[in-house]
Design goal:
Elements: E1 6-16, E2 20-21, E3 24-25, H1 26-36, E4 42-46, E5 49-50, E6 58-59, E7 70-77, H2 79-92, E8 97-105
Antiparallel strand pairs: 1-7, 1-8, 2-3, 4-7, 5-6
């Protein structure tokens, strides 16, 4: 059983919600590859407003600019696992921003709630952070996600 506590890396990938990889949403491809790589979890956050290198502001408040809102994919795992996943991002992310932050995991528990990974999901690393259908649910603090998301438009 893998326990994820203590020092870790947080990988955040900022892309546009309309960005694709082989006719599939890019954020979805990143999440599915992270799952296949056995990473602890991945979450996708949709921004309500932001801008990137183009300086074009995308916002959900204006219909004409709400079609390609910023999206952040956040993955937290051990430094070794995150570093091993980076070559896949080199292939996938041609426009956007990829950020690595050192962080400290205080608690990582599945639906069992006791930190022992006794959730009902079918997880290859025994973390049990999935639901009864085997779908993964990423953890992560929204406190670190309060800023605006940047995105190249």
């Amino acid at each position: 059983m893998t326990r994820l506590t203590g020092g870790a890396l947080r990988l955040t990938v900022f892309v546009g919600e309309n960005d694709t990889w082989r006719h599939r949403p890019l954020y979805s491809e990143i999440v599915h590859r992270a799952h296949a790589a056995g990473l602890a979890g991945a979450s996708v956050f949709r921004g309500v407003e932001g801008f990137g290198a183009s300086s074009l502001i995308h916002t959900s408040r204006l219909l004409s600019l709400s079609e390609d809102l910023p999206v952040a994919v956040v993955i937290v795992d051990t430094p070794e696992r995150v570093e091993a996943f980076l070559p896949q991002l080199d292939e996938l992310v041609t426009e956007g921003l990829v950020v690595l932050d050192e962080c400290r995991v205080l608690r990582y528990a599945g639906r069992g709630g006791d930190g022992t990974g006794t959730g009902t999901g079918e997880e290859p690393n025994g973390t049990g952070d999935g639901d009864s259908n085997g779908h993964r649910h990423g953890g992560g603090s929204s406190a670190d996600q309060r800023g605006r998301f940047g995105h190249e438009g």
